[in-house]
Amino acid sequence: MKLKRFLSAASALTLTAAMLAGCGSGSSKTAKGEDPSVVPEDTYEINWYLMGTAQQDVASVEASVNEYLKDKINATLKIHRLESSQYTKKLSTMIAAGEYFDLAFTANWCLDYDANASNGAWLALDDYIDTYLPKTAEQLGDDILDNARVNGSLYAIPALKEMAEQRGWAYRKDIAEKYNIDMDSIKTLDELEPVLKMIKEKEPDMQYPIDWGSDRTPEALIKYEQIAATAVIFYDNENYEGKVVNLVETPEYLEACKTANRFYNEGLIKKDVMTASDFEQRLKDGKTFCYIEFLKPGKAQETAANYSFELEQSPVTPIWQENGAGTGSMMAVSRTSKNPERVMRFLELLNTDKYLNNLINFGIEGKHYTKLDDNYIEISENTPYTLQGYTWMTGNTFLNYLIKGEAPDKMEQLADFNKEAQKPLDYGFKFDPTNVEMEIAACTTVMSEYRRQVIMGSMDPEPIMKEYQSKLKDAGIDKVIAEAQSQYDKFLAEKD
Fold first, then answer.
1. In 3D, which of 392, 322, 324, 323 has the Cα closest to residue 165?
2. Please, are residues 393 and 105 in contact by the beta-carbon 8 Å criterion?
3. What's the first-to-final CA gap in the chain, in angstroms?
4. Ramachandran region, residue 229 (left: φ > 0; alpha: ψ -120 to 50; beta: rest)
5. Are 248 and 475 in contact (CB under 8 A)?
6. Percentage helix, strand, coil, to 5, in the chain?
7. Residue 91 in contact with residue 318, Cβ under 8 Å?
8. Contacts of 67 by beta carbon, 8 Å cutoff, 6+ apart
9. Which pTM value belongs to this model?
């Protein structure tokens, strides 16, 4: 799961005001009583918004989906996919204006799930689950459903996928084998540094021995939960147990930023890394040896499925089930939906019907992919439709076909990965920002100015960090931390 991105409190307040003006109250609708065992006579079109690149041949997939759904729930599906740079902006505008849509991807890092749940954008689902989503709820379990609740209510359905996270290396298998590099034995960036220097010397065509975007810098190896702005709770550092701290005042954060700057000065990363936006393309072009990745079983193989070389992965951190495990990928029903019952019947099928799930994720057999056996497929070259790489977004990933080259026991590995995860001390803690919304908004503005300057590596972080810390204090970070600490202390006392 990537670093959480939060709407500023000011934006949230603006959104709330706009919604209340355009939509009325945020109270949930009650189930109309559509019988889930009966195919309705009236056809309903479900307008579904997803983040990602629009697919050329979506029309033929929609036609196949609609034909299949006709005898199931008599619904048709209209898929709208928007690039990540447009998605949150477009949907936030629609929500604020009270525009109709049925279903949308949301998360703790995209189209802010918590804020939009509180603002009344999403329909509360508690009254519907037993009738329309019983199998989905059983698959997810009470722990994940409770983890996804906001103020005691459930406003979206989590995707059933890996519910844990581990940080580590993803790297080119061919280069590691060529130089007999044992990446499993390398657990820190200091240990990795001489390997990177060797590759820079011996592989001049490999321009960036290590590479990163803003969420995969050395900071990514520090495991913490972002509570609000730079107020965080560390997962596995006994020095901060039970404490909410200002991330940018910790020696761990400064050291990570100094490491990024050292690697930059040594020519190990891209010179214009601060402004470059082609991180994924650089990986695909084979210009880097390794990068820090958010791991799960098979992650490297998924990433490199269409590369001309293989990627491998090696873990660095323990496996954690994050406090926001249920909110990393979700589907929310809009409160403007004209038939939420039918939408939830579709969600139940998406999470339980293998044929429908794979039709939406991989398209039409023989046209968009070739089936190799009952469970393996090969994506057609230059296919005009595939959600490969985005299946974590669209329902139950345990229903997915395996792609050629993936481990036959990938799904078993994912299940074990979830079972092995540790839960942090703050698991279940929900921060209420009401008393410090303005301070959070001000601190978030400071973050937007300084964060990239200190973490990306192209600038000396120490003088900037001092200014960064001072601006955060002026913006009220100490008040935010005090409020979060008070709530966290209460949570821990009740937990004990």
1. 322
2. yes
3. 28
4. left
5. no
6. 45, 15, 40
7. no
8. none
9. 0.85
Tens of pLDDT, residue by residue over 437-475, are 999 999 999 999 999 999 999 999 999 999 999 999 999
Give the other-Cβ count within 10 Å of 15's Cβ.
22
Query: Is residue 231 within a helix (H) or strand (E), and if so which, with residue range?
Result: strand 231-234
| Coil, strand or helix at 38 | coil
Structure tokens at 458: 């192209």
Q: Look at residue 279 in the predicted model and tell me its pLDDT.
A: 87
Task: Kindly report the number of other CB atoms within 10 A of residue 163's CB atom.
Answer: 25
Q: Is residue 286 a contact partner of residue 172, using CB atoms and an 8 Å limit?
A: yes
Token digits of residue 367: 């046209």
Amino acid letter for position 68:
Y
Residue 364: its H or E element: none
φ/ψ of 431, rounded to 5, equals: -85, 130
Tell me which residue of 101, 89, 86, 87 sits closest to 15, measured CA to CA.
Answer: 89
DSSP 396-444: -GGGSPEETTS-TTHHHHHHHHHHH-B--TTTT-----GGGHHHHHHHH
Instruction: Using alpha carbons only, give the angle 237, 238, 242 rounded to the nearest 5 degrees.
Output: 100
C-alpha 364/C-alpha 403 separation (Å) is: 15
pLDDT-derived band at 17, boundaries 50, 70, 90: very low
Strands (E), 236-361: 245-246, 288-295, 311-315, 330-333
Q: Give residues with Cβ within 8 angstroms of 418, minimum separation 6.
A: 162, 163, 164, 321
